[in-house]
Amino acid sequence: MQDDNLPIWLPRLAVQGGTRFLQIADALQAAVANGSLAPGDRLPPQRQLAAQLGVDLTTITRAYDEARRRHLLEGRGARGTYVAAPKVELNPILDLSMNTPPPPDGVDFDDMLKQGLSQVLMRADTELLMAYHLGGGSDSDRKAAAQWLEPMFGHLDPEELVVCPGAQAAIAALILALTQPGDVILAEPLSYPGLLAAASQFGRRIIAVPADEQGMLPEMLEQACRQHKPGLVYLNPTLQNPTAITMAESRRLALASTAKRCNVRIVEDDPYWLLADAPPPPIATFAPQQVVYISTLSKCLTPGLRVAFVLIRNRHERERFLVALRSFALMVAPLTAALTTQWILDGSAAQLMEGVRKEARLRHRMARDILAGRYSGAGDGLHVWLELPGYWSCAQLAHAAESEGIAVTPAQAFATGSASVNAIRISLGSIKDRARLRAGLQRLSHLLARRPESFSAAPSS
Question: Is the N or the C terminus of the chain less surrounded, counting Cβ atoms within 10 Å?
Answer without folding.
Answer: N
